[in-house]
Structures are given as C-alpha cells and as structure tokens.
Design a protein that fits this description.
The protein is an all-alpha fold. 58% of the residues lie in helices and 2% in strands. The chain has one domain. It is built from ten helices and two strands; from the N terminus they run H-H-H-H-H-H-H-E-E-H-H-H.
Length: 214
C-alpha cells in the first residue's frame, strides 16, 4: 500500500476552518460528483477487478448524500433536534464509508494482497484464503483495516471513530451520546480534509479528469 501512503492532498486549497460551512458542503458535493463521474465508468483505466467493483457501486449516491448535508445546518449550530442530529450523523457516516470503499476499490489489487492487515481487520476469509471485497465491509472493518494500515492518519482515524460512534445511535434504543451541532459541523469540515486526501491518492490519466472543488 505504499502508493496509498505516499501521496498527500495537493496544496493551494483553502483551509476548511476559513470557509463558511455551506461552502465546505458545496466543495464536498463537487468533489464527490467528480469522483463518481470518472470512477463509475473506469473501464480501460482501472484494473478489471477494480473497474467491476466501481461499476456496480452507487457512486452517484455519494454526490446526492453530500448535498443532503445542507439539511442539517442550522443557525445557531445547536438548533438541531435530537432526531435531526442522529440523521445528520448517519448521513455523514454513509459518506465516510463510501469514500473509504472507493479508495480501496480503486486500489483493489493492492488491497487484496495486504493479507496481514486484512487479517487484523477481520476482512480476510481464512477458510477461502481470500480478501473480503471492500464494498461489502462494515464501517467497523473498514476502520480497523485503515488503522492497521495507517492509511488515513491519526486525524482520519479519529474522525471515522467519532462518526461511527455517533451514527450508531440510529440503531439503538438505549441512551447513546450524539454530540451536538457544533461537533457535527466540525466533523463535516474534517470530512472535506479526508476527502481531499483520498482524492489525491486516486490515479487519474490526466489533470483534466481530476475532480474539482469549485
């Protein structure tokens, strides 16, 4: 996975904490729309197995889910009801899960050969001696794999863990911490940083195909 670890987000992009939250979401939506446009039809560029995974995925839903983040923005930020906040975390969790799956699907040939870290993440079928395809992994297994591989860095790992914990409230009847609107908006900003870093690790044949934020 050296190639995945060796590329960082490109410079000359404004820091997320200097932008209004609405602009952050617009940039997320634009990036995810561009990723979907290229990778949903990557035959002839991506390896056959990777193109097959990406071709059957719903990358278009990533763009739609990105736009829906606007639904959870309030002024003041903490004006969200508990139900709205739970749904907001579920929205963001789905986006993060889809972003990680996209990265691992693009680099599928490298991913499936990383047996040691796949075993650590419980993403390897020992009986069949084969890797589980990333499109079928839960966020927990994706998180474990990325952490074992040190793929997302410390801040990325913390973001995934936070959002996973918060969004799990949608499945539980018992009391769980759901944070607040300020924390949610901070996580949305961190997601743009994560999305930038992931997109920088996706190989494009030419700059003209690279997704843009604006």
């Amino acid at each position: 996975m050296a190639k995945l670890l060796g590329i960082v987000a490109k410079p000359h992009k404004p820091a997320v904490d200097t932008m209004a939250i609405g602009e952050v979401i617009d940039r997320i939506e634009s990036l995810n729309r561009g990723i979907a446009r290229f990778w949903a039809k990557s035959d002839g560029w991506a390896p056959v197995a990777a193109a097959g995974l990406l071709g059957k995925s719903r990358l278009d839903w990533q763009a739609s889910l990105s736009g829906s983040l606007h639904l959870w923005i309030r002024e003041p930020a903490n004006a969200l009801s508990p139900a709205e906040l739970i749904l907001a975390w579920a929205n963001l969790g789905s986006l993060i899960e889809g972003t990680i799956k996209t990265l691992l699907s693009v680099w599928y040939e490298t991913y499936k050969s990383d047996i040691d870290n796949l075993k650590k993440a419980n993403a390897y079928d020992k009986a069949k001696k084969t890797a589980h395809a990333p499109d079928g992994l839960t966020l927990e297994k994706l998180r474990n794999y990325c952490k074992a591989q040190k793929l997302l860095g410390h801040s990325g790992d913390k973001l995934v863990e936070l959002v996973q914990q918060r969004r799990n409230a949608i499945h539980a009847f018992k009391d769980r911490p759901i944070g607040d609107g300020v924390e949610f908006q901070g996580a949305v900003r961190s997601y743009l940083d994560l999305l930038r870093a992931v997109n920088a690790r996706l190989p494009y044949p030419d700059e003209m195909y690279e997704p843009r934020e604006r």
